[in-house]
Amino acid sequence: MFSPSALADVLHRLGLSSATPLTVAFSGGLDSCVLLHALCQLRESLDLPLQAVHVDHGLHPESSGWARRAQQTCDRLKIPCTVERVQVTRIREHGLEDAARRARYACLARHVAQGEVLLTAHQADDQAETVLLQLLRGAGVHGLAAMPAMAAFHKGRLARPLLEFTREQLAAYARQENLQWIDDTSNADLRLSRNYLRHRIFPLLEAHWPEASRRIARSAGMAAEAAELLDDLAESDWSSCRGVEETRLSVVALRGLPPPRQRNLVRYWLRQQGFQAPTAMHLDQVLAQVARDPRSNRAVIRWPGTEVCRYRDELIALRPCAETDSGWRMHWNLTDPLEIPGVGFLRAEKSQGDGLSCERIGQSPIIVGLRQGGEVCRLPGRVHHRKLKKLLQEAGIPPWERKRLPLVYVNGELAAIGDRWVCEPYAARANEPGWKLRLEPA
Fold this sequence. Notes:
This protein has a 6-stranded mixed β-sheet, sandwiched between helices. It has a 5-stranded antiparallel β-sheet with strand order 11-15-18-19-20, with no helix packed on it. Strands 7-10-9-8 form a 4-stranded antiparallel β-sheet. It is built from 16 helices and 21 strands. The mean pLDDT is about 90. It has helices spanning about 5-15, 30-45, 65-75, 90-95, 95-110, 125-135, 140-145, 165-175, 195-210, 210-240, 250-255, 260-270, 280-290, 360, 390-395, 400; strands at about 20-25, 50-55, 80-85, 115-120, 150-155, 155-160, 250, 300-305, 305-310, 315-320, 330, 340, 345-350, 355, 365-370, 375, 385, 405-410, 415, 420, 435-440. Helix 2 (about 30-45) crosses helix 8 (about 165-175). With about 450 residues, the chain is of the alpha+beta class.
């Protein structure tokens, strides 16, 4: 059964002690009330530094009243509590539940500093519901691992110490301690997938298979172990399949892996860079570009928030960028950073023997623009001019970067190509004062 001493055992196994400041995500519902109350019983014996944060999503007419009740509960327990009101946006894109969750965790992240831990009150039934939802979405092992008991979060960590206990066990403790909690009426809305599972599906499962929730949650723990082993394998494969840059994958090396390891590596590679996981269809499309050479040197697979490009013999993951206006042009004072819409900032720093020559620039007007086509440049030490297109191709600069590379003109003549090349006669000589250009991408 759940008790403060059982919670103390979990905290110990999670490595949480009096040296760890704890912040409870306190909704005021049954589960978080039980967690906060039990922590209070342990506060003196374990010397726990404890505070609470209540997030008001503003989605329910009674939400401000719930926030007051959460504050009052914390006041009675003598726990510092911060109430935060958030605005839930992008509901159409993510759905109401996911959009609210994103807003909530973005808010909670501001209350977790280096070395601190956020505690949430997710329990075994929540875990079982998450596993079934992931299963119905066709998730793999990482999805079926559901919610870990401990994970990195913002500058600190996130812990879920109630995953070993069922909702009924927590309710029994609440009744025993005469706790009062908030009943969110939206939890009865069967249009929401989690509520439908909770009220319609799990009662049937539990009637036929007692402790179904606990057993499904246990399976999530085993899936988490399997996911960890797959990550270890992917990390090893990544070390042998890295491209020219660390964040790229070599197509040739990737072809040398069996298909299951290819899929495992691509998923891991994207996850490590913070990209949204591909669907099975998108993953198949990415691997199709690995299996065969595309007709052009560039192939792109897109899904929300992510683009995977094959350029020559490498896979590159990118975040979609705003389209640039090829006709954009602007006068530039080198002493000030220049913002280029959709590209970033171009800066000039004083240097010696590097960059644009101060002497040859003089007081001439400087204009920055984007590629139009047909530009030429004579590099220092070269006799002939070269087409910019050829220089970019030889340098292996992908097409999507070429169109975002700012060109610097002096007296109407191409003088520099972003922060990559300076053209004659504007290149600073040895020991000559110059301006070194630096491009900071958006």
